[in-house]
Amino acid sequence: MTGLAIDEVMAICRYLEELHPAPSLLGRNAVERAQIESLQRKIEFDGMIAVSEIFRNQHEQFALRGIPGGGGESIEAIPQLIVRGKQTLSRFLLHSNLI
């Protein structure tokens, strides 16, 4: 399909699941679907937000764009958030049972 753009991970997964239902990507029954969605949300909130906090406050190109969607305003990065992000990510990886 020309011109289709889907830029959100779970929307892409659901799209692919609809096109190719086997093997199941998002679970074969209600319990599996709930477990997969729960893990996805945990990864997103507990893991990805920490990574984002580290990256956005550490990378030189974001020095004046400390938060997404600043609307053109200069919003300075906060170096202390790098430390907090690394602590949060470390705790997530240690206690997530994903690795």
Radius of gyration: 17 Å
User: What structural category characterises the helix and strand content?
Assistant: mainly alpha
* H/I helix tally: 3
> How far apart lie the N and C ends?
36 Å
**Tally of individual domains:** 1
Shape, principal axes of CA atoms: flat
Summarize the amount of helix as a percent range: 55-70%
Average of pLDDT? 88
Q: How is this structure best described in words?
A:
This protein is an all-alpha fold and 99 residues long. It has one domain (9-95). It has helices at residues 9-19, 30-58, 80-95.
What topology does this entry show?
Elements: H1 9-19, H2 30-58, H3 80-95
Helix pairs in contact: 2-3
What does this entry show, briefly?
By secondary structure, this protein is mainly alpha-helical. The protein has helices at 9-19, 30-58, 80-95.
What descriptive keywords fit this protein?
99 residues, mainly alpha, flat
